[in-house]
Amino acid sequence: MPNLATLHDEYALRGRIDESAPVTNTSSVLIDASPARVWDVLADLRGWETWAPGFRLRALHAVEPGREFRWAQNGTPLRSRFAVVAPGRELSWTGTCLALYRAVDRLVLAEEGGRTRVTVQESLTGPLVRRLYGQRKLREGHEIRLAALKTRVEDAA
């Protein structure tokens, strides 16, 4: 099981998740908007509280590679560090929960016929992670957030 530094340097910074992690998921949605417009919503982490269910930002200085941020998802406190911040293309980070669980999260944007395909990928490792927070729960969370993002971007048009 890779440590957090390895996950950050060897996975997130290289545009990949840990495919060998006990829990992984990839989900995507097609949004009727340009990558630039989708990016404006994604890069505004302070604004996520208005559209992302269960998201609460606790500390953020800047959305820049290497910068840390603290947040909570459905009340669970998380510490994360941005890896890739590529406007209109990718927002990724690594993070920990309770110092036991480690994740790599990627949000990748791709123009597709005048619209934007947003793909979320995540790998999650830690003790009993399959039992405590399995793949189905991870997928459901991603799909809820992607649907909320689609609504937020398309309703703002």
What is the topology, as strand order, of the major beta sheet?
1-7-6-5-4-3-2
The global form is: globular
Biggest beta sheet summary:
7 strands, antiparallel
CATH fold topology = Alpha-D-Glucose-1,6-Bisphosphate, Chain A, domain 4
Give helix and strand order, one letter per element, not per position: HEHEEEEEEHH
Pfam families: Polyketide_cyc2
Protein name: SRPBCC family protein
InterPro entries: Polyketide_cyclase/dehydratase, START-like_dom_sf
Organism: Actinomadura monticuli
Structural summary, described in words:
With 157 residues, this protein is an alpha+beta fold. It has a single domain, classed as Alpha-D-Glucose-1,6-Bisphosphate, Chain A, domain 4, CATH 3.30.530. The chain is built from four helices and seven strands, in the order H-E-H-E-E-E-E-E-E-H-H. The protein has helices spanning 4-11, 35-42, 129-132, 135-155; strands at 23-31, 55-60, 68-73, 76-86, 90-97, 101-112, 115-125. Strand 2 (55-60) and strand 3 form a beta hairpin. It starts with a helix and ends with a helix. The mean pLDDT is 96.
Summarize the structure.
The chain is of the alpha+beta class and about 160 residues long. It has one domain (about 5-155): Alpha-D-Glucose-1,6-Bisphosphate, Chain A, domain 4.
Topology:
Layout: H1 4-11, E1 23-31, H2 35-42, E2 55-60, E3 68-73, E4 76-86, E5 90-97, E6 101-112, E7 115-125, H3 129-132, H4 135-155
Antiparallel strand pairs: 1-7, 2-3, 3-4, 4-5, 5-6, 6-7
